[in-house]
Amino acid sequence: MTDRHDEGLFTPDGADLAWPRFADVHAFVADYLAKMWARTIRDPDNTFRWCAKWWDHPLALDRLTALWRAHEAMHAQDGADASSWWTDHADPTRKALCAPDGPFTRCGPGRHQVPPELPIATPLLLGTSAVA
């Protein structure tokens, strides 16, 4: 890893742009995203859903990990594309996860329920027939 002090990458107030900014996706959500997306969550809220156990929802964990990685990549490039990160990454992720029909649809304050997996039928192998 390159020494960021040698590159002279600092914020306007002189603070070092440490990389990575967040050790993992959990730190990113707890220390940054939860503050940026902060709002009062009412039950039932038909416009914004959230789950305190977001990591227990596979779609949320995957999307938020991708969002964290995009955030780290943006900051590794001196944060020059922060506006695009919000419009191209953060806003669509929030809309997909926090929508009334998103993965947190059955969750609310003090309530956690992971949606069931989609049903999958086992395909027939070539040369076999279906048995009723």
Structure commentary:
This protein is mainly alpha-helical. The protein contains four helices and no strands. Mean pLDDT is 82; it is low at 1-10.
Note the topology.
Elements: H1 4-7, H2 25-36, H3 58-76, H4 82-98
Helix pairs in contact: 3-4
SSE succession: HHHH
Helix content: 25-40%
By DSSP, the count of extended strands is: 0
Which overall shape is indicated by the principal axes computed on the Cα atoms? Answer: extended
Distance between the termini: 60 Å
Largest sheet: none
Structural class: mainly alpha
Indicate the radius of gyration in whole angstroms: 20 Å
Mean pLDDT: 82
Instruction: Compute the number of helices.
Output: 4
Low-confidence stretches: 1-10
- Range of strand content: under 5%
Question: Concise description?
Answer:
Helices cover 39% and strands 0% of the residues. The chain contains four helices and no strands.
Primary descriptors:
132 residues; extended; disordered N terminus
